[in-house]
Design a protein that fits this description.
It contains eight helices and no strands. By secondary structure, the chain is mainly alpha-helical. The protein folds into two domains: about 70 residues; about 70 residues, Winged helix-like DNA-binding domain superfamily/Winged helix DNA-binding domain (Arc Repressor Mutant, subunit A, Orthogonal Bundle). The chain starts with 6 loop residues before the first helix and ends with a helix. About 15% of the residues are buried.
């Protein structure tokens, strides 16, 4: 199939497959965004197809389905972030605006609040976000510098895990 047919012929032959996948996943596609993603995936399949590895239609189906699911996942993640921001905005409007002005992702901050203790979150906000020294934090919180260092020591692996799960 590779290079024997033009892509226009391949698209005409496999267009029903695109619509089948869109219907299979119950996708509403008024702007044809999903159709376009599937067409691009079909083009990539057409360009990278190796006849020795099986039927083209099976390979094309796999590539298009994977592309559509990626778009769905991306939109779901964006919706989750929007919902998290809306929830944060309703609970404390000034805080969300402040984080956005400072360039801090409110979704990430909410995830950190879920894993850090209150003291660890205090260290994170004052040391990382507000750039205060350990000594200044200790004075502000009326604790020893060793206590602040312990908060940091316990918080860092948790923050690393959250950041690694983001990427």
């Amino acid at each position: 199939m590779h290079k024997v047919s033009s892509f226009e012929e391949v698209l005409a032959t496999h267009e029903k497959m695109i619509y089948y996948l869109i219907n299979k996943w119950n996708i509403r596609d008024p702007e044809k965004e999903f159709y376009q993603e599937a067409t691009i995936a079909l083009w990539k399949a057409y360009e990278s197809y190796d006849p020795a590895r099986g039927k083209f239609s099976t390979y094309a189906y796999f590539c298009m389905e994977k592309a559509l699911l990626s778009v769905i996942r991306k939109q779901t993640r964006q919706q989750e972030k929007q919902n998290m921001f809306i929830t944060m905005e309703k609970s404390n409007p000034n805080r969300a605006v402040t984080f956005l002005q400072e360039g801090i992702d409110p979704y990430l901050l909410a995830r950190l609040e879920n894993v850090l203790t209150e003291k660890q979150m205090t260290w994170f906000q004052l040391y990382v976000l507000k750039d205060l020294s350990v000594k200044a934090i200790a004075q502000k919180e009326q604790v020893t510098t060793a206590a602040v260092k312990n908060w940091a020591r316990a918080a860092k692996p948790k923050i690393r895990r959250v950041l690694c799960s983001e990427s």
